[in-house]
Amino acid sequence: MATLKEDQDNLNVEQDVEQDVEQNLKQNLKQDVEQDMEAPKHIPPPNMAGWKPCTQELMIMLTLAIISLMVSLDATVIITSLSTIVQALNATATQGFWIGTSYLLTCAVTMPFIASLSDMLGRPPCLFASLVAFTTGTVLCATAHSIALLLVGRCIQGVGGGGIIILSLVIFSDIVPLRFRPRYVGIIQGAWALGTCVGPIVGGGLATPTLWRWVFYIMFPLAGIGLVCVPLFVRLKPSSSWTDMVTRVDWLGGILFICSATAVLIAVSWGGTQEPWGSWRTVVPLAVGAVGLVATSLWECFGASHPFLRHSLFNHRSAVAVYMGAFAQGLLLYGQLYYIPFFFESAKLSSPLRTGVCLLPVMLTLIPASVLVGSVITRTARYRWAIWAGWTLTTLATGPTILWDVDTSPAVWVVILVMLGLGHGLLLNALNTASQAVSVAGHEGAAVAMYAFLRSFGMAVGVGIGGSVFQNVMKRRLVALHLDPDIARNAEAYIAVLHDTHPSPHRSAILNAYVHGFRGVFAVFCALAALALLVGLFIRHHDINKDLLTEHKLADGVVGWRRRENRSRSRSRSRSHNRGESQGQSRSQSRSESRNRSHNRRESQGQSQTQSQNDAKN
From the Swiss-Prot or TrEMBL record, what is one GO molecular function term (predicted)? Predict the structure, then answer.
């Protein structure tokens, strides 16, 4: 009986021990679950946790900003110095027209293929080659003693400039998460906008027979900085070998696209100005270019193994609306920066320097607006409001320019130019962000390349369309006033005659014809801005909290934010490991204490039983 009772007591003790251990395990498990519920379910990506660039990334951004400033300055410095250069080289009005157009044309048509080459060959080699091409073209322009050599230099500059513009934005998308690109891309976009707005001022100051070559000389310090800093800091490398990269390049598609786009831009540039729209010199290149672009699209969709034009970029209406907005903004921004100074020099008889100063309201508002909207987009992760507000301001500012005349007061045009700068500043950053937000994950580089190409394509088209409208409207007005209609064909060269002519009814009538020509151009710009606003309403919101997916790493093989993410994950794992060890120690301690209590209980029970047996014997 005693043995049976002892076994029963031992069984009860073991059950008590098991219950204590089970209770402790349940309590620890409950604590683990509660901690997991309170903690985030995953390590947040850097674009959610607060990304900051490392030193190398900051130096890359600064380098890209400097060379972007150089390229944009070169594009617009020619606006207010063009008439002086034409006179110095004894060029015709047609040749003078191509000084600016040749740069924009070659800049635009080479962009997509250069971006595709950088995917295969690597960003730094293509960027450095673009810098070398730009510098070579600048040397030719600065030393040119004939219009032919100057045009060759401008074409080479355009190829290099196109590569610099497109690769600056693409490299930026390689190193900065999308959520934070609006904030930091303001560095590059601000530099680009600064050069675009300051160019006419600098060109106006250098527009003399002895100083016009300095229009190109001032590029050399910036080009020198770029040639040193690009190899030093921009060290990104793709994962493929050179053999694989060269064989993957879509050479046929790239050549076909460049030739076709060039033919279209040539036809659009001189159609209605140098050649009638019905002339074979306009119709043939336009038709050949259109057929070539269709053939390029078919080849990219069905023939190319590695297409440089990805049809996935246009897979929904938001993407189409964004790219249409990019084209419209390029057309309007450069068109307005070209024809507004033209208006001041001709209709208001301002000097080139004063004309450049008149653009200060645009410059002083466009750059801060672009930087500020980038910070707001990064903070709120919303960008559509900036697109809608930008197009609204641009439309409202473009409308009153239709009413400008020789007597328009400074107060009126200053307010209009301030609104114009704010509108374009909002659009410059918001459209760039939207183009990447609506793209397929991992295709942000191709998306920003398409955005930059269409913006530059619009810039090239804007001058040609504006020139066609201006000449035709001005010509009709000259005929109505019984004046020589050939003045419209040489409107820029005739500005020097107007400045040397004393006030008279004849000069006033010619100025009136100029004003009517500008009204036609500004009316087209206003209609296009309103159409772009309408198209922008179809853009849907897409999340910008995307992980950074790129094959082009920093030189050490790891993108900067991933280094920080890995450190964050390591710290998190370390904390989790320490917490697990402490929890394991607490569980072991609980089990040990339970066993000790059970052992003590058994000993006390054994002593009680022995005492009871002794008492029974006694």
Answer: transmembrane transporter activity
Look at the alpha carbons of 162, 164, 169, 170 in this order and tell me if their dihedral is positive or negative.
Answer: positive
Domain that holds residue 395: 309-542
User: Do residues 283 and 270 make contact, with C-beta atoms less than 8 angstroms apart?
Assistant: no
Specify whether the CB–CB gap between 231 and 97 falls below 8 A.
no
**CA distance linking residue 309 with residue 114, whole number of Å:** 11
The rounded distance, in Å, linking the Cα atoms of 28 and 588 is 11
Picking from 498, 522, 542, the residue at the C-terminal end of a domain is: 542
Of 222, 169, 203, the C-alpha closest to 77 is: 203
List, for residues 104-128, the tens digit of each pLDDT value: 888 888 888 888 888 778 888 899 9
CA distances from 354 to 348, 357, 414 (A): 11, 5, 14
pTM of the predicted model over 0.90: no
Q: Report the number of distinct structural domains present in the chain.
A: 2
Do both 233 and 318 map to the same domain? Answer: no
Among the listed residues 289, 290, 285, 309, the one whose alpha carbon sits nearest the alpha carbon of residue 299? 309
pLDDT digits (tens, 9 = 90+) for 420-431: 999 999 998 899
| Residues in Cβ contact with 265 at an 8 Å cutoff, skipping those fewer than 6 apart | 105, 108, 109, 289, 457, 460, 461, 464
